[in-house]
Write a structure and sequence with these properties.
The chain is of the alpha+beta class and 229 residues long. Helices cover 37% and strands 17% of the residues. It is built from six helices and nine strands; from the N terminus they run ββααβααβββαβββα. A hairpin with a 2-residue loop joins β8 and β9. The radius of gyration is 23 Å and the shape is globular.
């Protein structure tokens, strides 16, 4: 049986970095659900009880996951804390950084791998937006029309006459917007890419009390992408 996590055979590769070669371990790491479960142990010592408190779950539930991660080679016991009765095991990720080559996963294509990963975050975003809107305005509808430039618009609305947003002061800080008809020269598209990423980095450094999911995306629309297969 091959070692599920092997060092990259490169003498210049940083210590503490591991390349995942086992498909089971690779699939666990690219799955946001299981990655969140591994997070308390990534690069730090943590007990099952501590991880359970962070996640708001029962220790036995977390312990089952921990045993699975140990079996996959993703976690290891760093030490045992002695006490009256059974000693407490302290776990830590088996690497500071994991690298998962696409070829190590069970995904058929890069698109399917990305779709599976994005589904987790899309669900977080969608549920948060729907809850905030429902609590603020109740039931809403969808307003479909062409704007003054002749471009298709699909907007949240309470009536046929006007769109509805939560941008006013005091409204929940939620936003879900897609635009597939933004026409840019490459230079403008590149500037937008960099500005969006810089904005994300700036706010990601904040240490606020609430946890938010933020999604940014930008890509050229491929020819035939609107055609249903």
């Amino acid at each position: 049986m091959k070692d599920p996590i092997s060092p990259r055979p490169d003498p210049d590769f940083a210590p503490g970095v591991r390349v995942v070669t086992d498909p089971r371990a690779a699939d666990a790491l690219v799955n946001p659900y299981t990655l969140r479960q591994l997070e308390p142990f990534l690069g730090r010592d943590c007990t099952v009880s501590e991880a359970a408190r962070q996640a708001g779950e029962k220790p036995n539930t977390v312990l089952r996951r921990v045993r699975r991660f140990v079996g996959l080679g993703l976690l290891e016991v760093t030490r045992e804390e002695r006490r009256a009765g059974r000693a407490i095991k302290v776990y830590r990720s088996s690497a500071e950084v994991f690298f998962v080559p696409f070829e190590a996963t069970s995904a058929e294509t890069l698109e399917s791998l990305m779709a599976e990963r994005d589904r987790y975050y899309e669900d977080l975003l969608r549920r948060g937006v729907v809850r905030a809107r429902r609590e603020r305005v109740g039931t809403w509808g969808t307003r479909i029309y062409k704007d003054a430039r002749g471009r298709l618009q699909i907007q949240t609305a309470l009536t046929p006459e006007a769109n509805h947003t939560l941008l006013e002061a005091g409204a929940p800080a939620v936003l879900s917007a897609w635009r597939d008809s933004v026409y840019l020269d490459f230079e403008d598209a590149k500037r937008l890419q960099l500005e969006l990423f810089d904005l994300l980095k700036r706010f990601q450094q904040a240490r606020g009390a609430g946890r938010y999911v933020v999604r940014l995306g930008l890509a050229p629309v491929l020819a035939g992408a609107d055609v249903e297969g």
